[in-house]
Amino acid sequence: MHPITFTTAMTDRDHLRQLRIPTKDNPLRIMMSACLSGITCGWDGTANGEYPAALRILKYDTVKVVKFCPEEFSFGAPREMCDIHGGTGFDVLDGKAKLLTESGQDWTEGILKASAHMLDIATQHQIELAVLMDVSAACGSQVIYSGSRFSEHKVYQIGAGVAAAMLIRNGFKVISQRDYASLEILYSKIDPTHVLDTSKIDHHEIEWYKEYFKTT
Ligand code: SF4
């Protein structure tokens, strides 16, 4: 039995459909997890893998990408792996859960500081959409771990990481690199030649998600 602790940023396709058609002179302002853009800011000094569906965003001159890594901002890279204990990113914002490292260090204060900084950047740049790396305790927006991912019986929960929760709570729209249907809509906005592929689905629609979280 896997608990559903908090339903957060289900992909808001209506918001994506309402995004304006940008131009070179007035590009769409997108915030991106720095690692998703290829920057090696991950906990192990890598970019956490390659996600072509998100990387493609960088190719368009109709987009202005603002990259930020909240964990690197506060803890550097490489660093320990961290996960949220006792709730979701929203609970961390509310003082009800903590961000702990693998060795038990409490990084709550640092991630709150980084999340506030990320919000400042998003506000300053008038971000219209954030595309963030899912499962991260900072950037996750659909699924995150509940407690340590290295525990013998690791548990996932529906929820947002701390930085993503900060953005969502302040009115910013967040999608993940695995929300392929949403990314399709985004590409139809930023690329006039893009033909919308309606067969694509978002992460909360995949079989694993539906089965694991018993959402159907
Ligand atoms: S905190 Fe976010 S940007 Fe930084 S490595 Fe983790 S997922 Fe990527």
Report on the structure:
- There is one protein chain.
- The protein has 216 residues and is an alpha/beta fold.
- It has one domain (13-212).
- It has helices at 13-17, 52-55, 70-75, 89-93, 108-124, 162-169, 180-190, 207-212; strands at 28-33, 63-68, 82-85, 98-101, 129-132, 143-145, 156-158, 174-176.
- A four-stranded parallel beta sheet has the order 2-1-5-8, sandwiched between helices. Strands 3-4 form a two-stranded antiparallel sheet. A two-stranded antiparallel ribbon has the order 6-7.
- Helix 5 packs across helix 6 (162-169).
- The chain is globular and about 50 Å long.
- Mean pLDDT is 94; it is low at 1-10.
- Residues 33-35, 41-42, 48, 69-72, 133, 136, 138-139 line the site of iron/sulfur cluster.
- Iron/sulfur cluster is lined by residues 33-35, 41-42, 48, 69-72, 133, 136, 138-139.
Q: How are the SSEs placed, and which strands pair?
A:
Blueprint: H1 13-17, E1 28-33, H2 52-55, E2 63-68, H3 70-75, E3 82-85, H4 89-93, E4 98-101, H5 108-124, E5 129-132, E6 143-145, E7 156-158, H6 162-169, E8 174-176, H7 180-190, H8 207-212
Parallel strand pairs: 1-2, 1-5, 5-8
Antiparallel strand pairs: 3-4, 6-7
Helix pairs in contact: 5-6
Put the structure in a nutshell:
The chain has 216 residues and is an alpha/beta fold. The protein contains eight helices and eight strands, in the order αβαβαβαβαβββαβαα. Strand 1, helix 2 and strand 2 form a beta-alpha-beta unit.
